[in-house]
Amino acid sequence: MNIEVIKEFVMQNWLVIVVALIILFFVLNVVKTVLKWAIAIIIIAALLIYSGISIDQIKQTVTDVQSSTMDTLKKEATSMMLKEASKATYTKGQDGAFTITSPNVEIKGRTNSDKVDVTFRGISVGEWKVDNETIRTFVKQAQENGTAPAS
């Protein structure tokens, strides 16, 4: 989204924006029901539609934020794996499943699988391939640290 377009829109439609904000302020302060939020959403949606911002642009922005957040989370998880490899414990199940746990990272997988599920600080960061060097190092170090008894 171009900032110049937004500035131009605000300069040309400042009166409409001010009136919408006054109505929005009035609705939020006077109406005390769920209806006020419905009216507020309608006013905001009307302003967005009037400004020329499409639903596709909003969806694209949300998607960009999501992917950026996941990328950052994956980088942090990878970094944390390297830092916490010496604290990781390896738990092997009877069915070939295993779990590796460290203070901030948990990996669950199967012995002959090429993918593992990674959880970072309680948030799933998806399924990762085992061919990742960091994953292999983390698993190897956890196995060397010793196997915890299966629960």
UniProtKB/TrEMBL annotation:
Keywords associated with the record: Membrane, Transmembrane, Transmembrane helix
Record-annotated membrane-spanning stretches: 12-31, 37-55
Protein name as annotated: ATPase
Species annotation: Paenibacillus taichungensis
Taxonomic lineage from the root: Bacteria, Bacillati, Bacillota, Bacilli, Bacillales
